[in-house]
Input
Amino acid sequence: MKRVFGVVALAAAVFVAQGASAQTLKQVKDRGVLNCGANGQLAGFGLPDAQGNWSGLDVDVCRAVAAAVLGDAKKVKFVPLTAKDRFTALQSGDVDLLARNTTWTESRDTTLGLNFTGVNYYDGQGFMVRKSLKVNSALELNGASVCVQQGTTTELNLADYFRANKMQLKSVTFADADQTVKAYDAGRCDAFTTDASGLYSERLRLAKPDDHIVLPEIISKEPLGPSVRHGDDQWFDVVKWVGFAMVDAEDLGVDSKNVDEMMKSTNPEIRRLLGVEGNFGEQLGLTKDTFYKVIKQVGNYGESFERNVGSGSPLKIDRGLNKLWTKGGIMYAPPIH
Amino acid sequence: MAVESVGAQQPARVAFYNDPKFRSIAYQVVLCVLVVLVIYAATTNALDNLQRAHVASGFGFWNQAAGFDISQSLIEYSASVSTYGTAFWVGLLNTLLVAVLGIILATILGFTIGISRLSKNWLLAKVATGYVETIRNIPVLLQLLFWYNAVLKALPDIRDSTKFMGSFLNNRGLFVPEPIADPRFGWVGAVFFFGIVSAIGFYIWARKRQMATGQQAPILLVTLALVVGLPLVVFLVTGMPLHFDAPQVGRFNITGGLALQPEFVALLLGLSIYTAAFIAEVVRAGILAVSHGQTEAAYSLGMKPGPTLRLIIVPQAMRVIVPPLTSQYLNLTKNSSLAVAVGYPDLVQVFTGTVLNQTGQAVEVVAITMLVYLCISLFTSLVMNIYNSRVKLVER
Output
């Protein structure tokens, strides 16, 4: 009979584990650590160094949420996910939050059961080719072999672009980003395609980065952002507003260095952001000084950008569209009010 | 003399729940009910969870446009018009292609190596031993990556392709002229079919005659003449109705002709070579299982070595070989799902990879894929079991 009880116990375990999915905030607090789905292979967005310290623009999202919820930006367990596995990992509850340079699309927002909490990088898809091919435009790629990673919007955009321009496509698809880049580097394909930010990042990994150029065409809109599961509005709000607060902080000139001084500021917007006035953190089910902790430990959006992908990083990507709305970009966050 | 009849001794009455028969049935009923309950609970639970998270469910995605490209397809497929359903068939056919060719190659290679390991030639036997011990002790995934990277690295770049007889070899694959049949080629096909049918007929007739009279007929020669010779004559008579579409060097790639992609070659080589090592051991075991006395008995009846092997040793060895050989075939088929590592568009790569990711319907897609592998494996088992029942020891 013991065996039968075992079966019942197992079935019960399956039930309990799956039953509670609507209280992510409580679960994270009880667990004391945030499970965050990250890239793990993309410099600038999510990559652990030799000591296992993760860094990147998406990694900072996870750290900011951990700082807000648990008070410590280090209390994050990063789960490296491939493009193909990332949604299943989020849907099944393996991770609380997915911050893995993921494009916000209609179908992902609906049928995949995800809620995108905002955009932390406005990107677009581009191509990289060998200089020796003497190709100056993506429109000259008729009949070319293109290496592409599986399970990405990239795969669909690629087929769309070649179809729309009546060009012949020979795609070679890999599950893994590393293998895709390796195959391109070995000459299996004429071109390699991914989001433009990714092209700059991957180029650094090629045997001879200077032999390759990124073509000027951007063939798609790729708003990248973190996402959470459907059906947990509280958690959705937390992640969403942590992101907004980082952009608002940059907007208001608050950064990790001057945040303590800013506590004395008379500007009501800054006072609300840092929790000196009002109870905006508490409305999220957190503490008053939630955003203060985020900015103190992780910094504002601009700091995170420059540190990971901008001028302070090896990628040296121009901020372009990702500048604040006041500076010619489209990065804009609703007010904390 | 008091004789008590044995029948009068009534068996002691036991409570029904102590009756072993009742118990065994009751346990099985309880277990069945529990299994059904668990499956039911898991299904409804999964459905509830999906519904709560507003994840789409059902099989409606099957007829939606796929919109992605697949690098190798045996059937008509294009990103613009094909559906996820078509993508499934493309992936399945690619899996079957590599599995069937892999089984054939692995069998040939495995039998050769297995017999070589028993050879009296010292060098041959040692080389075969080295092969088996090296190959079967390295994980198959590593071997696939090795073959893929070895193939890519060793071959020339597309602009320095090796050319021979109108074919091109480079790191994009092997491109050979594609034979294209003219209308008159139909005659050759018809005669070829006729040749096969009549060869089978001749074989049956020859067997019957041998059974009845003991006379042997030259089966091999007649079969060759019917299946190869006759169509060849027709081919020449109708004026060689076949032309070749030669591959051409384009701006980026080679167009036209038949292309053999490195992903496919790497997967086929990797799987065949790996599985052949196991088949070799199975074959060696099978042959060693036949007592040497059988060979001596055959020789003492005056049989030559060839017929001895063919009629005495192999039929007995097959009894031992076939069941484990079936397992190896199944392993090869299932291992083909590692294609995903080398970019070959098999069922797992296309369907459980891209389609799953685009639709997000993990439960349905994974269930379909598992069902398909189950069907392929059960079919392979069925065929091999039928063959096994023909070669196994007939007990009287």
